[in-house]
Amino acid sequence: MSQTFTVENFKGVREITLSPEGSLVVIAGGNGAGKSSFIDAFVELFDPKGTRLTPKPIRDGEDEARAEFIDTDLDIRVVRTWKKNDAGRLEVFALDGAKYGKPAEVVARLTGGLIFDPVAFLNLDEKKQRDALLSKVALPFDLDEVAREKAGAESRRLEAGRDVKRLEGALASIPKPAPGTPAEEVSSQAILDEIDAAQHAQRHRERVERVYQDLAGELHDLESELAGLQRRLDDTRAQKAAAYKAREALPTPVDVAPLRGRLADVEQTNAAVRAGRDHARVAAELAAARSAHDAAQADIDAVETKKAAGLAAASFPVAGLSVDESGVTFEGIPFAQVNSAMRRRIAFAIATAGDPQLRLVIVKDGDLLDAESLESIRALAAERGYTALIERDRDESRQIGFTIVDGALGGAQ
Questions:
Q1: Residue ranges of the alpha helices (H) in 135-224?
Q2: Which keywords does UniProt give here (predicted)?
Q3: Whole-angstrom Cα distance, residue 198 to residue 257?
């Protein structure tokens, strides 16, 4: 594989052309020498969206800046030219000079959509690491849509839970009906009618009784005057006999005290009936609220099951790698808690996931890598057929890489 990297008049670079060998390309140099400018030129070159990443891309005193990449194996030449302080013009050519009509689409196809910086990935917060990883993984669902489904179910569960607590309190405050309490309130009118009838009969009895008593008294008086009142005595006896018959024909007296007791019990019974109805109503509402709560929980469980199945079916760049709502996980452990060497290895594996035609990794913060980490990246890049373009000036960088001095190539080994 033969690759050439060229930058002219971009930021701090005057003109540099590299045709490196091997999988590791280290760009070294002191502060302000131009190594960051060299790396930035290729970050912008391989941005298919044409995002303006650099406010002033053209070197002071120059009219035009250019970044170019050639890969003979891919038969491709990618060029971005800046003639003003904008995102530049992207062009893609075959090595015979034929020009591609849609350069952004060609670059996106070549790179798989973007050039992934594994060290920058390590410095992202957990949410952004998760998003970056998911951009490299084909999931059978929209994870954000799954999150919205779960949030909706959680909201429904919360509302149903509030109803459950409210109705449990309401149900506890209502006395539970005693066994045998009727379902409907009892009418007191029938008892009142019985009382009226009994009172009417009692008044009639009292009237008859008074008549009888009066006649009996009068008879006593007449008998004491029997000699002169025989005729009156006979009449009185006849009247007494008639009154006696009427008295004997009277029905048995009705005791209204039990009826009054029943009347007093009616309101107590009806209060129990009303309480029973309230108890049944609130119990039904509580059952409905519990059902709604359970249904919302079932929705949450279904969302979690759907998400877990999708993540389990997804092909992640490293075995054991996955995501949760907070960020990236490795073998079930939050990515931030994985040891640093493994994190770097995983980040590089993510960067080299997929099967792009142009296998290039650009690392801007290479000074964060120690010698062991750098060697690990070199070995992984070689194993996967990648070129790792790394900005780094620590340790042995100037001995193993290309050194930039004042915007130009100062030396290489």
A1: 143-173, 189-224
A2: Coiled coil
A3: 11
C-alpha closest to that of 11 among 52, 49, 62 = 62
Length of the chain: 413
Please tell me the predicted confidence (pLDDT) of residue 413.
Answer: 39
Q: Rounded CA gap, 409 and 412, in Å?
A: 8
Count of beta carbons in the 10 Å neighbourhood of residue 328: 28
CA max distance for the chain: 172
Q: In angstroms, rounded to a whole number, what is the distance separating the alpha carbons of residues 281 and 287?
A: 10
Give the span between the Cα atoms of 343 and 371, in whole angstroms: 15
pLDDT in tens, 228-244: 767 777 888 888 888 88
Enumerate domains of the chain plus CATH numbers: 3-113+356-409 (3.40.50.300), 120-138+315-353 (no CATH), 146-312 (no CATH)
Confidence of residue 163 (pLDDT cuts 50, 70, 90): very high
φ, ψ dihedrals at 356, nearest 5°:
-70, 155
Q: pTM to 2 decimals?
A: 0.61
- The 10s digit of each residue's pLDDT in 273-321 is 888 899 999 999 999 999 999 999 999 999 888 888 888 788 887 788 8
